[in-house]
Specification:
With 383 residues, the chain is α/β, with parallel strands linked by helices. 36% of the residues lie in helices and 15% in strands. The two termini are 44 Å apart. It catalyses: ATP-dependent breakage, passage and rejoining of double-stranded DNA. Keywords: DNA-binding, Isomerase, Magnesium, Metal-binding, Nucleus, Topoisomerase. It comes from Arabidopsis suecica (Swedish thale-cress). This is Meiotic recombination protein SPO11-2.
Length: 383
């Protein structure tokens, strides 16, 4: 970018060729905030101040690109270098402009105090301090992504901790710094809660004799598999995010994939567009994560449910697709990254107008899930 008196030309770390968020130490993140604020103040104090635009990476699907793995098995989505602008002089975006600086101010304080906060905690702080600018959680979430796009650093680097819903169970030992090792096969059917502290996760020692990592979409199915101790028959580790994955659960799975690169990662999800969308988030990342979209992509394989499993399910257990399913299917089918086998499965869902839940397999008995997974593994039926 060329230097000028306009805010739109200031180098808020938005002039890199690739759109990604760095992981920084606290003092490095504070330095980026300081540079941004000093640049703003320089313009405000100039003889002819000209406050125009904040140039931010466009986080819409139209700005997404695909990196197809060549040297690795992992493909992922990432954002290109198309920009969108938030202007102080535009009535529609003026508040968004101010929100960015309000969030940066709070993040700077958090980093100085060496604290970590969740986005929910951040919302209530901002609601208290700046009620005229923040009235909902979604405004905070979007502004955090704006700050990430502006400073080119991860949320965790800004002192914002992930809220984790994730659980893990099975043949895995976890040892956090300074603590006793936890045997994840002895945590009961509830499993072991995955912390939202990514730094702690990064420094946790992992030991396992598992041969598979199995990601389970639903908490109830996770509970059944762990209660039945399926990991004793199939040497595996079960992980669930209880639906759409949060950053901490994705980070944990990615950490496992790098620690145990030889272990296949298999996903057990409902046969519906939402189940496939959850699988794809683990596998490719999510544009909704902005510049952090790609970071925790893993080479996940789809073990079930799939179209060739419908013969195992009574006709009356198949239910019509919901309008929300159709919206998700349309979005997935327009994706650049969806592989042909997944596209075929999705097309079959749309053609039949039906969906099937994992629980439909209980028609064969409550202990059938373990047999189902074992058969799929032995036959190599995962894509």
């Amino acid at each position: 970018m060329e230097e000028s008196s306009g805010l739109s030309s200031m180098k808020f770390f938005s002039d890199q060729h690739l759109s990604y968020a760095d992981i920084l130490r606290p003092h490095e993140a504070r330095a980026r905030i300081e540079v941004s604020v000093l640049n703003l103040l320089r313009i405000l104090n100039s003889p002819d101040p000209a406050i125009s635009d904040l140039s931010l990476i466009n986080r819409k699907r139209s700005n997404s690109c695909v990196n197809q793995g060549i040297l690795t098995d992992v493909s992922y989505i990432f954002l290109s270098t198309s920009f969108t602008k938030s202007s102080l002089t535009n009535a529609k975006t003026a508040k968004a402009f101010v929100r960015v600086w309000k969030v940066m101010e709070i993040c700077f304080q958090i980093l100085l105090q060496e604290k970590r906060v969740t986005q929910r905690e951040l919302f209530y702080k901002l609601l208290c301090d700046s009620p005229d600018y923040f009235s909902s959680q979604i405004e905070v979430n979007r502004t955090v992504q704006d700050v990430v796009a502006l400073l080119r650093c991860s949320r965790y680097s800004l002192g914002i901790m992930a809220s984790s819903r994730g659980l893990v169970a099975g043949r895995l030992f976890l040892q956090e710094p300074g603590k006793e090792a936890v045997d994840c096969s002895a945590c009961g059917s509830s499993g072991f809660a995955i912390t939202g502290d990514l730094n702690l996760l990064d420094n946790t020692i992992m030991r396992s004799d598992a041969r598979y990592i199995i990601v389970v979409e639903k908490h109830a199915i996770f509970h059944r598999l762990v209660e039945d101790r399926v990991f004793n028959h199939i040497p595996c580790v079960f992980i669930t995010a209880k639906g759409y994955p949060d950053i901490a659960t994705r980070f944990f799975l990615h950490r496992m994939s790098t620690t145990f690169p030889e272990l296949p990662i298999l996903a057990l999800v409902d046969w519906n567009p939402a189940g496939l969308a959850i699988l794809c988030t683990f596998k490719f990342g999510s544009i909704g994560m902005g510049l952090e979209a790609y970071r925790y992509a893993c080479n996940v394989k789809w073990i079930g449910l799939r179209g060739d499993d419908l013969d195992l399910i009574p006709e009356e257990s198949l239910v019509p697709l919901k309008p929300k399913d159709s919206q998700i299917a349309k979005s997935l089918l327009s994706s650049k990254i969806l592989q042909d086998t997944y596209r075929d499965e999705l097309s079959l869902m749309v053609q039949t107008g039906k969906r099937a839940e994992i629980e439909a397999l209980y028609c064969h008995g409550y202990n059938y899930l373990g047999k189902y997974i074992a058969t799929k593994i032995v036959q190599g039926k995962y894509i």
